[in-house]
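Readers of this paper often ask what the protein records in our data store actually look like. The remainder of this section carries one protein's record, kept here as part of the documentation.

:::
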Amino acid sequence: MSIETRYRRLEEEIAKACMQAGRDPHEVALVAVSKTVGADEVSEAFAAGARNFGENRPDGLLEKAPLHAGATWHFIGNIQSRRIGDIVAHADLVHSLFEERHADKIDAAARAAGKVQDVLIEVNVSGEASKSGRAPDEAALLVEHCLGLANVRVRGLMTMAPQGDLAGARACFELLHTLRDELKAEHSSCEDDRFMHDLSMGMSEDWREGIAAGATIVRIGRAVFDDAFE
C-alpha cells in the first residue's frame, strides 16, 4: 500500500471517528510523524495532501523543512538547549516544552528570529518514569512563566499515554483535557484565542481515544509511512 493510499485512508478514518464523537473533522489536525523517513517519503505524503509533519530531531527539521514550502512543522522530540536555535528557526509548533530554562532560551531565540514561537506544554499525565513532561500539578507554574515571555505563545498541552492500554490512554487524555480547561479558565482574561486551544494527544495506536477525548492534534507516523502497520 502506498503512502498516498495510507494517508487518505487515515484521513477518512479520522473524519469518521470525529463524527462518531460529535465533532467537526476540521477541528483535528493530522500530524504525519516523519521522523523515521526521508525527504522523498515526506514528498509523497505532501502530494497526498499532508501539510503537518512531525520531527523529533533538529537535524530532521533542517533537512526536510526547507524542501516543502507550505508545510507546517512540529517539533515533537526532547529539547536540547544547544539546538534551540535550530528548532526555533524551522518549527512552527514545539510540542515538548516542560522546563522554564528552555522556555527562556526559546524566547530569546524567537526574539532574535523576529517571531513568536508557538509551544505546547508537555504534561506527564500517566506519571510513568520513562516519560518526560511536567507533573500535572506543576503545569500552571510553567504556563505562568511563559505568559511573561513576549516571544513564546502557549497554544495548549501535549501528552503521551501508556502503551498497550486503550482504556488507560482514554483516561489519560480526558485528564489532560480537564487540565487544559482549568488552565484556560484561570487565564480567562487572555485575549489571544489561540491560548490553550490545542490538545496534542493520540498516536498510531490510540488516536481514536485521543479524538474521543477532545484532541485537536494527533501525531501519527507508522500508520502513514510503515507498510507493516495495519
